[in-house]
Amino acid sequence: MSHKLIILGAGESGIGAALLGKKQGYDVFVSDGGTIKDNYKQELAVNQISFEEGHHSWDKVLGADEIVKSPGIPEKSDLMKKVREAGVPVISEIELAYRFSTGKKIIAITGSNGKSTTTALTYHIFKNAGLDVAMVGNIGVSWARQVATEPAEYYVIEISSFQLDDIKTFKPNVAILLNITPDHLDRYDYKMENYVASKFRIAMNQTAEDAFVYCMDDPEIMQHLAKQPIYSASIPFTIMKPLKEGGFVDKDQLHIDVNGEPVIMSMYDLSLKGKHNLYNSMAAAIAARTMDIRKEKIRESLTSFESLEHRMEYVATVKGVDFINDSKATNVNSVWFALESFEKPIVLIMGGIDKGNDYSAIRDLVKEKVKAIICMGVDNTPIINALSKDTPVMISTASMHDAVTEAFNQATKGDIVLLSPACASFDLFKNYEDRGRKFKEEVKGL
């Protein structure tokens, strides 16, 4: 009998899992409660994979030998309750891809903020070192798709806590945990410790020959480590004090001390600016050293890396005002990182769909650095209520055109106009990419 694999959810990870399952000879069926995008439907048809959309056929779903669940489906949904009652084994797409990646080197990166940047930077170092490497996961293509269509020797994976919730045997050679701040708590019964435990699953199958790379300056990480030991080789990074092994900053020099041969460079030579990027750069460099990439290559890559689109992306300078697109900042913590990166006065454009944000975390930085906040959204009251006392100017707008025009009016030569919304974008835009692109168009039109 062939192995019946049911894929729940037909986004990028679901389609990747379907392609890989089919390639491995499984009997694959894809079921999505919503609508499936046309390009994905075409792919399924071309590969002769049957699917349904708009509903789930229970007999089929519950008759599976195994289910691959999309990271977007919460455990509390009726669908998952039925699946768990029926006792059908559930795995994530990450687990499926891992099953068919024996002998490959895997660097997995998780954390509440900075995942995409660190993943892209790590990939950049490996690529520059001439390795056969692919960048997969939450950034770009799903890992399962890559394994099915174009397997590589090294995988650099950006991985979310939702994807870690359904792993069984997944074991990265290097696991990186950048930081843990409250995000997505609705999925973890509003208990921070559940979310923390979920992030730590990245190391749960690791053994002594694997590496666990973590930020020593993160209180949540340190608390958890004190309670629950890790079995892999732990390599910390910090900006607080020198270390014997790991990554640290001392007298404006970045030090990476792993596997002999220390990598030392001036932090001013890093292409990524800001305190949070010191952490991201150290994590990526440590991953490279664990794989014995030469220090010259690491230094060269950390200097030449171009940051990601929509993540602290420089757009243009108009009449002495710098415009920065940080549309990917969809939570308050990301905005804190952005504000912390700049020394010049800031005109901040923020707003969108507020997921119950607590703006108190950025109040001090707003007082210190922000000369005006331009709200952009259908409902700007939460931001106005939370921050109007902390900045001299607060203006409400309901379109990107008006937001950019108002911001430019408020800015003078030497200022920065920063789009760092702290919110989801669905009230006015398709997604954060669409929001970032509209921002760039408006800036170019000034």
From TrEMBL:
<keyword id="KW-0961">Cell wall biogenesis/degradation</keyword>
<keyword id="KW-0131">Cell cycle</keyword>
<dbReference type="GO" id="GO:0008360">
    <property type="term" value="P:regulation of cell shape"/>
</dbReference>
<keyword id="KW-0133">Cell shape</keyword>
<keyword id="KW-0067">ATP-binding</keyword>
<keyword id="KW-0132">Cell division</keyword>
<dbReference type="Pfam" id="PF21377">
    <property type="entry name" value="MurD_N"/>
</dbReference>
<dbReference type="InterPro" id="IPR036615">
    <property type="entry name" value="Mur_ligase_C_dom_sf"/>
</dbReference>
<dbReference type="GO" id="GO:0071555">
    <property type="term" value="P:cell wall organization"/>
</dbReference>
<feature type="binding site">
    <location>
        <begin position="111"/>
        <end position="117"/>
    </location>
    <ligand>
        <name>ATP</name>
    </ligand>
</feature>
<dbReference type="GO" id="GO:0051301">
    <property type="term" value="P:cell division"/>
</dbReference>
<comment type="similarity">
    <text>Belongs to the MurCDEF family.</text>
</comment>
<comment type="pathway">
    <text>Cell wall biogenesis; peptidoglycan biosynthesis.</text>
</comment>
<dbReference type="InterPro" id="IPR013221">
    <property type="entry name" value="Mur_ligase_cen"/>
</dbReference>
<dbReference type="GO" id="GO:0008764">
    <property type="term" value="F:UDP-N-acetylmuramoylalanine-D-glutamate ligase activity"/>
</dbReference>
<keyword id="KW-0573">Peptidoglycan synthesis</keyword>
<dbReference type="InterPro" id="IPR036565">
    <property type="entry name" value="Mur-like_cat_sf"/>
</dbReference>
<keyword id="KW-0547">Nucleotide-binding</keyword>
<dbReference type="GO" id="GO:0005524">
    <property type="term" value="F:ATP binding"/>
</dbReference>
<keyword id="KW-0963">Cytoplasm</keyword>
<protein>
    <recommendedName>
        <fullName>UDP-N-acetylmuramoylalanine--D-glutamate ligase</fullName>
        <ecNumber>6.3.2.9</ecNumber>
    </recommendedName>
</protein>
<dbReference type="Pfam" id="PF08245">
    <property type="entry name" value="Mur_ligase_M"/>
</dbReference>
<dbReference type="InterPro" id="IPR005762">
    <property type="entry name" value="MurD"/>
</dbReference>
<feature type="domain" description="Mur ligase central">
    <location>
        <begin position="109"/>
        <end position="288"/>
    </location>
</feature>
<comment type="function">
    <text>Cell wall formation. Catalyzes the addition of glutamate to the nucleotide precursor UDP-N-acetylmuramoyl-L-alanine (UMA).</text>
</comment>
<keyword id="KW-0436">Ligase</keyword>
<dbReference type="GO" id="GO:0009252">
    <property type="term" value="P:peptidoglycan biosynthetic process"/>
</dbReference>
<dbReference type="GO" id="GO:0005737">
    <property type="term" value="C:cytoplasm"/>
</dbReference>
<feature type="domain" description="Mur ligase C-terminal">
    <location>
        <begin position="310"/>
        <end position="423"/>
    </location>
</feature>
<dbReference type="Pfam" id="PF02875">
    <property type="entry name" value="Mur_ligase_C"/>
</dbReference>
<dbReference type="InterPro" id="IPR004101">
    <property type="entry name" value="Mur_ligase_C"/>
</dbReference>
